[in-house]
Amino acid sequence: MVRSHTVTGGAAAASRSALDEATLLVADPHRSPAGLGAHAQRAMTLCRPGVLSVAEVAYHLRLPGAVVKMIVAGLVHSGHLSARAPYTPAAGRHDLDFLQQVLDALHKL
Amino acid sequence: MPYTNSDRYVPAAARPVKIVVLGPFAVGKTTFIGTVSEIRPMHTEERLTQAGQLVDDLDDLRGKSTTTVAMDFGRLTLTPDIVLYLFGAPGQTRFSGMARCLMEGALGGLVLADTRRLDQSFPAIDLLEQAGLPYTVAINHFAGAPLHREAELREALALPGDRALVSLDARELGSAKQGLIALVTAIITQSRLEPAR
Asked: What domain of life does the native source organism fall in (chain A) (predicted)?
């Protein structure tokens, strides 16, 4: 039996709430995965070649989303990954230029 | 669509946009996501306690009575700067905890409805109303299902006149995307009408 604190490197709780299933993860190529736990190493192996969402990492690692959020939160805390949260309106105001780009791209599909 | 390892990743500078797809069992959520997604639709297993709450702590995964529910999702790269993520969640009341979690961080919601059982889409509409999240209702038309005039559908769904309502075929991209277009158009229109907060 392994305590969750150990699995995630102990840093999960504080930053976990900011992670969304659609949050994109960007690996720092200069950070070595040496010394990370097994799940964290697998997550880094997956994320180093390119950008993926939390949900995709969960799918590829065959782990529940809630577990992956904890592992990823630890990796964000340690600087191995940076997180790019999904678009939301800032202070209740939408970025209309951005939404128009979304709409134009949908029309072109 | 074919899925190869080379298109596993999204453009490095992309900003994610999240949309939730809600509706009752077998209304076409998975079909919709599969049609729109550029990757083979994926699902992850989420564990729910019997209270319907998403478990978000490893400690909670042990020893407690939980049920497992699959969450579908798909991805669509719109431009090098924008990638859309679609998440499908069961709309039944007993999964409302999961749907609430998924609505966090979403731009809006698409509610799929079947004219033979419109009432089964009510819980999804209620959840989005409660969350204050913009949403659009899309009738996924099934062969043999009755066709109704829009006014009748609006009345049956108790949908305000300014709330978008579209009909689509979840199996075809050109039709399915109309649901997303209606949702984003409604958000832009509403945002232009609202004074700065």
From this structure: Bacteria
B121, part of any domain: yes
Instruction: Tell me the nearest-neighbour CA distance from A61 into chain B, angstroms.
Output: 10
Q: How far is CA A50 from the centre of its chain?
A: 12
Per residue in B46-65, pLDDT (tens digit) is: 665 555 555 444 444 444 45
The encoded tokens of residue A90 equal: 């800032």
pLDDT at B49: 55
Measured distance between the N- and C-terminal CA atoms of chain B, rounded to whole angstroms: 43
Chain B residues inside the 8 Å CB shell of A54: none
Which helix H or strand E contains B18, and what residues bound it? strand B15-23
Whether A7 sits inside 8 A of B87 (CB atoms) is no
The pair of structure tokens assigned to B123 is 């819980």
Report, as ranges of residue numbers, the positions in chain B whose pLDDT lies below 50: 1-6, 55-64
Measure the CA–CA gap between B135 and B125, rounded to whole angstroms.
Answer: 8
Distance of alpha carbon B98 from alpha carbon B102, whole angstroms: 6
CB contact under 8 A, A87 and B187: no
Scanning every residue of chain B, which has its alpha carbon at the shortest distance from the alpha carbon of A66?
B56
Does this model's pTM top 0.80? yes
CATH number for the domain including B39?
A: 3.40.50.300
Sort out which chain B residues have CB atoms less than 8 A from A8's CB and list them: 58
**Whole-angstrom Cα distance, residue B93 to residue B13?**
38
Chain A residues whose CB is inside 8 A of the B47 CB are: 64, 66
Instruction: Write out the CATH class of domain A4-108.
Output: mainly alpha
